[in-house]
Amino acid sequence: MYQSQEQSVKGFSLIELMVTVSIIIIVTGLALVRYSSFNNTVLLKSEALEIALIVREVQSLGMQADASTGGRAPYGLHIDTSSSQNQELVIFQDGDGDTVYDSVEELAPPASPVPIDARFAITAICVGSGACGSGSASVAFERPNFNAIINGGSATSLTIVLSDASGGGASRRIIINQNGYVAVD
After folding, report:
1. Is 20 inside any structural domain?
2. What's the 3-state SS for 42-107?
3. CA R_g for the chain
């Protein structure tokens, strides 16, 4: 009885192992490069949702009765991109009833102005169907309606463009409609 002296060799050759490790390194490298971009996108969306939540909070404040007077207390949010103010939102209580922010108006509690994360900036404001650009705008809410009063009632919508401050090109839009609807696009 004769048995074959040939042995079956099982395993990887050095070339197969090097190719496999190279593929793993390339895929890992691509994932790490894309992670930073993905992380910035998630943070930008989170900040846009935070601003939308602030708008809803101002809307809720505007629906409440003023305990000191028993009457209505219009509350609003002021955005200004024409100066260094594009890093904050100003919550105000409308003192003169025009539903537009005046610099002499009393700032509303709990804490105003509300800062925006330094990694992001409000780069444009679109009032109504007009062109987007720098400037300022106010949105106010007054009892008993949930409707938004944009720039004293002269506009039907307000869009806030929030962008990555590092110039990455990513941006999100916070849209406030005249009927009080707030959305992040």
Report:
1. no
2. HHHHHHHHHHHHHHHHHHHHHHCECCCCCCECCEEEEEECCCHHHHEEEEEECCCCCCCCCCCCCE
3. 27
Calpha distance 138→91 (Å, rounded): 10
pTM of the model: 0.76
C-beta separation of 82 from 65 below 8 A = no
In a domain, 94, yes or no: yes
Q: Which own/partner contact pairs does 80-85 have at CB distance under 8 Å and 24+ positions apart?
A: 80/135, 80/136, 81/122, 81/123, 81/124, 81/125, 81/134, 81/135, 81/136, 82/134, 82/135, 82/136, 85/113, 85/136
Instruction: Read off the pLDDT of residues 54-68 as tens digits, 9 standing for 90 and up.
Output: 999 989 888 886 666
Q: Is residue 3 part of a domain?
A: no
User: Can you give the residue range of the structural domain that contains 173?
Assistant: 30-184
In a domain, 21, yes or no: no
CATH number at residue 36: 3.55.40.10
- In the chain, the number of structural domains is 1
Instruction: Summarize the confidence of residues 134-146 as an average pLDDT.
Output: 85
Q: Which amino acid, residue 143?
A: R
